[in-house]
Write a structure and sequence with these properties.
With about 60 residues, this protein is of the alpha+beta class. It has one domain. The protein is built from 1 helix and 2 strands. Strands 1-2 form a two-stranded antiparallel sheet. It is elongated.
Length: about 60
């Protein structure tokens, strides 16, 4: 993960400023298929987004 930066994002039709973090994955294609790696990164991204949303909602 990289350091966070302010970036604009559209949420419910509104442009908002959020802290964004780039998430990358390196793996050996001889061991892990690229599709599996992409699904793994997607799952982590969704989990982090859900945690962020729950924090905003105060849950």
């Amino acid at each position: 993960m990289a350091s966070s930066q302010l970036a604009s994002a559209v949420c419910d039709g509104k442009i908002l400023i959020h802290q964004m973090i780039k998430l990358t994955l390196s793996h050996d294609h001889r061991i892990v298929d690229g599709g599996l790696g992409a699904r793994f990164v997607s799952a982590i991204t969704q989990t982090l987004a859900t945690i962020g949303l729950l924090k905003l909602l105060g849950v």
